[in-house]
Amino acid sequence: MTGGLWQLGLAVALFLVSHSLANRPAIRRPAERLLGRAGFIAVYSAVSLLLLAWMIAAVRAAPIEPVWPKEPWTLWVPALVMPVAGILAVAGMTSPNPFSIGPGARGYDPARPGILRVTRHPVPWSFSLWAGAHMVPNGDVAGLMLFAPLLVLALAGPALLDGGRRRALGEVEWRRLAAATGRPSALSAALRETGGPRIAGGLALYAILVALHPLVIGLSPLP
What we know:
0% strand
C-alpha cells in the first residue's frame, strides 16, 4: 500500500488518529482494564511500530519533490542530535516517572528524579529531536509529510501529559513530585542521577540505529 503521496498521507493520518484515540481516557481506561497496563502498552507499541513501518515504506516509494536542496551539511544535524535523542529515549523508558511515558511511578524519588530534572517527558522530547533533526536533510514533500506532523505531535505531548497527570495527582501531590523536575539548567545533576548505564544504553541505541539505517531506509545516515 505504498507508491503515492496520498498513501503516505493516509499512513500518517492513521498514526496520528491511533495516538489520539489511545490517549483518550474513555478508550484507554477500558483497554487497560481489559489488557492490563503492560498489555495495553505492548499492543499500542506494536500498532505504532506497524504504522511507522508503513509510513517509512510509503516515504521510500513516494516521488521526490524537493522543497529545499539537500546540502552535505544537513546530514550533520541528525548525526549530532540523535545521540541526545537516544539517551533521552533509553533514560525515559527505564527511569521511574509518574508524569509521562515510561515504566511508571514505582521507585520514583522526588529528591533524585534523574533525567526528569531536565524534562518530565524525555521520551516525547526524544521523538521531537528525531523528527526535527530529520526534517533538515529531508526537505522534500514526502519527508515533510512524515516528519512535520510527528514533530507537532511530539511537541504537543508534554503539555497534554502534564495536564492529565496534574488533574489525576491533584495539585498538592503534583507540586511535591514535580518540585525538582523540568529544569534544563540542572543538566549536570540530571546526568549524574541518570547514571552511566542509561547514558551508555542511549549511545548504544544510536549506534544500532546507525547500523540499521542503510538496511531499513536504504541510505547511510552519516555525513
